[in-house]
Design goal:
single chain, alpha/beta, 3 strands, 16% strand
């Protein structure tokens, strides 16, 4: 399972916690994981791993259930809101 919020959210949180959150757009861009948007499903498939992208909780539940029901490794790429924490 890959939880993807397109950001190093934990680092953003830590910067705010220590009072370093006002570094400007250049500093904030260092913690952004796009562009380019990575296609984790294709990367996994290129290595022979079954993979699927889930953009809703319903899609995630179905993909996770199917991955558990089949042998071998699987990747479920769960897309979260940009910058969201867990």
């Amino acid at each position: 399972m890959l939880l993807d919020n397109s950001s190093y959210a934990i680092l953003n949180f830590e910067l705010k916690r220590v009072g370093a959150g006002a570094g400007g757009s250049a500093a904030r861009s260092l913690l952004d994981l796009s562009p380019p948007d990575l296609d984790f499903v294709k990367l996994a498939q290129g290595m022979g791993v079954e993979a699927v992208r889930a953009e809703s909780s319903e899609e995630f539940a179905a993909a996770f259930k199917q991955a558990l029901a089949e042998p071998g490794p699987h990747l479920v790429h769960a897309v979260l809101a940009r910058g969201s924490g867990l």
